[in-house]
Amino acid sequence: MNKSWAGAALGAFAVVAVAICAQASRNSERSLAPWHDLSEDESQPSKFEPFLVKHPRDLARRVAALIWYARRNPDIAKLEEHTMHLITHHPDCMWIKFENTTAIYRDPSYGKRIASALEARMRDSQPDAASFYNLASIYRQIAMFSRSGDESDDQGFLQYFGLPSNAVMPEKPDLKLAEKAVEYYRLAVSHVATDSGYAGIYLGGLVKLLSSLERYSEAVEAFESSQPLPVGPSNAGLFLDYGLALYRSGNQISAIRTLQEVRGIDNEGDGKPGHATMRAETALGLIAMRGGNIPEAERYLMSSLDVERCPHNVTQGVPTRLGRKLLEAGNNGIVIEFCHAALAKFNSDDSGIKQLLVEAQI
């Protein structure tokens, strides 16, 4: 078994998953890490495997099994076995999505088996928002595993999910499966309580997917038709995606206002602004560039680094698109300053920033 794909998930992706769950609801059993009450010994296969034979509904040990076979000692057959048990007993558990992400990207047919099992399980049970969200997320992963058109973005994606750098990515998304994902996201949004911490997560999935499909007006409509709007620190990424959709649908004034508001509600960086703010201010800088306002673009380039370290900006890397545009315009000095600051503060091995620095110093 090739274990090279375990590293990124073990070091980063699970941290992001815990953060997403924890911010959604501090009171929900499944919103937190259900295996945290297990000892290290109880989290070993020699202990959880025989226990699960006798107690197949045990959530903590089942999730511990997924973590073990997805990341600690990768075994796709055992991962699928325990995922199928989890679907049977807890189809609403978000760790179905989290712990299978890399496996799905490595083998889309595996993802289709997981999705089919979830759909069959839901036909036999009362529909619920979390299960719809799991289905939507899995179909999105299968459908959208395609090239972005930006080589550095593609390599960053592969690295983040622990995939080989030469992994074959389709040229275009699978629109039929993407539409299934859209419909399941809509069902998740329609079934979740408006005061649930998950409301923004489910809506965010829908807005992001519609934007990825370049259906920007639909993304804006989906956000604006969600009442009451899920305003809160945990939804900074949602407001970021809404602002980007506004801009791409032609509403620049509202887009700028929304993107400027992201910093005030972002708390991913240990209670302070994090990756969503970094991306929002990068977007604001690109808007300034398109309007010919180079000084404003330079200001946003540097302010995008005025955020805290968080699981996303450390592992996914610092966005380079604004720096590259400024470099193309001949503003090498500010780009060099930006690169040095980014490497010092976030990740000294960020390949995208290091490459940009080399180009800026030529």
Features:
mainly alpha, single chain, disordered N terminus, 0% strand, 362 residues
Task: Give the helix level as a range of percent.
Answer: 55-70%
Approximate strand percentage: under 5%
- Rg: 21 Å
Question: What is the arithmetic mean of pLDDT?
Answer: 87
Largest sheet features: none
SSE arrangement, N to C:
HHHHHHHHHHHHHHHHHHH
Overall 3D form: globular
Uncertain regions spanning at least 5 consecutive residues: 1-16, 18-32
Please count the beta strands (DSSP E, at least 2 residues each).
0
Terminus-to-terminus distance: 43 Å
* Helical segment count: 19
Class computed from helices, strands and strand pairing:
mainly alpha
What can you see in these coordinates?
The chain is mainly α. 66% of the residues lie in helices and 0% in strands. It has helices at residues 6-24, 45-54, 59-72, 76-89, 95-106, 108-123, 129-143, 151-160, 175-191, 199-212, 216-224, 236-248, 252-265, 275-290, 294-303, 311-315, 321-328, 332-345, 351-360.
